[in-house]
């Protein structure tokens, strides 16, 4: 199956091609669906300078691998750099392994230390939302200082639909984790090229490529609301990939495309980032 690129290339029905999803190698599925997302959502353009948020986990590692390998297929010239944010509460990530891995893919690596707990006001408790906002703030600051115009995040299809149901049940809002978010305050966009991929497809690709997980295990995420929503989605979808993909398609089917956002403040929906 050829990856067709260009703004007016016909759409390849990979999301509904069950035979392809059953038979293709995991790495091929990642390449095809990432390329499809980039093309259909216009996530990457000629001359982009893209900062990849790399935790060392499977999602951001597979994202970095995919973006480094897709340049030829996409026929787009763009630059990549990986930024890892080290916190003051978790130091188990093997950053040397992460740096070596990115170097193999031709991606420069930077490690940035951020005192996430140290920034908490007296009496406040550490939580996922605080950590997420602090990491996102530093990603944006670094990107702007270094002249990047896009930040690539490793969220996948399951993350996106989980966020939609979290917002619906917890906040009473219809909002999702957009695959493309353009800031109004900054000359900067967030993109999620793995948005068409299920988590299990990302895991399968990481296993196939022997991309070992080098991310920290967060001590504050044990009782996450996201885990509860994930279990509920698994229950009512039967963990069917086809059902999940239809849910994702529905987020773009209304009067407002929930997978695209123009924001002055950033995302209001996501309380956890990778």
Task: Map the helices and strands.
Elements: H1 18-23, H2 26-40, E1 49-53, H3 58-69, H4 71-74, E2 79-86, H5 95-104, E3 109-113, H6 128-146, E4 150-152, H7 157-171, E5 180-183, E6 189-191, H8 199-208, H9 225-237, H10 241-250, E7 260-263
Parallel strand pairs: 1-2, 1-4, 2-3, 4-6, 5-7
Antiparallel strand pairs: 5-6
Helix pairs in contact: 2-8, 3-8, 7-9, 7-10
Give an account of the 3D structure.
There is one protein chain. The chain is α/β, with parallel strands linked by helices. It has a single domain, classed as HUPs (Rossmann fold, 3-Layer(aba) Sandwich), CATH 3.40.50. Helices cover 42% and strands 12% of the residues. The protein has helices at 18-23, 26-40, 58-69, 71-74, 95-104, 128-146, 157-171, 199-208, 225-237, 241-250, and strands spanning 49-53, 79-86, 109-113, 150-152, 180-183, 189-191, 260-263. The protein has a 7-stranded mixed beta sheet with strand order 3-2-1-4-6-5-7, sandwiched between helices. The chain is globular, with a radius of gyration of 18 Å. The two termini are 31 Å apart. Mean pLDDT is 84; it is low at 1-14 and 268-274.
């Amino acid at each position: 199956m050829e990856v067709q690129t260009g703004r007016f290339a016909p759409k390849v029905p990979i999301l509904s091609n069950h035979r392809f999803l059953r038979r293709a190698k995991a790495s091929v599925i990642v390449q095809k669906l990432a390329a499809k997302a980039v093309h259909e959502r216009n996530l990457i353009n000629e001359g982009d300078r893209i900062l990849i948020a790399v935790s060392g986990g499977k999602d951001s590692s597979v994202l970095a691998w995919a973006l480094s390998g897709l340049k030829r297929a996409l026929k787009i010239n763009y630059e990549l750099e990986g930024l890892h944010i080290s916190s003051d509460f978790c130091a188990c990530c093997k950053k040397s392994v992460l740096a070596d891995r990115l170097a193999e893919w031709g991606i420069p690596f930077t490690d940035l230390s951020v005192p996430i707990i140290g920034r908490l006001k007296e009496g406040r408790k550490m939580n996922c939302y605080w950590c997420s906002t602090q990491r996102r703030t530093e990603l944006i600051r670094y990107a702007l200082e270094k002249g990047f115009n896009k930040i690539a995040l490793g969220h996948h299809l399951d993350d996106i639909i989980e966020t939609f149901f979290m917002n619906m049940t917890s906040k009473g809002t219809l909002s999702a984790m957009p695959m493309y978010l353009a800031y109004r305050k900054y000359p900067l966009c967030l993109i999620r090229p793995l948005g068409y991929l299920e988590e299990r497809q990302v895991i399968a690709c990481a296993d196939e490529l022997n991309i070992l997980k080098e991310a920290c295990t967060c001590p504050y995420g044990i009782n996450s609301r996201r885990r509860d929503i994930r279990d509920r989605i698994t229950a009512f979808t039967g963990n069917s990939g086809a059902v999940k993909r239809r849910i994702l398609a529905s987020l773009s089917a209304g009067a407002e495309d929930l997978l695209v956002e123009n924001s002055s403040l950033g995302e209001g929906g996501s309380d956890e980032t990778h």
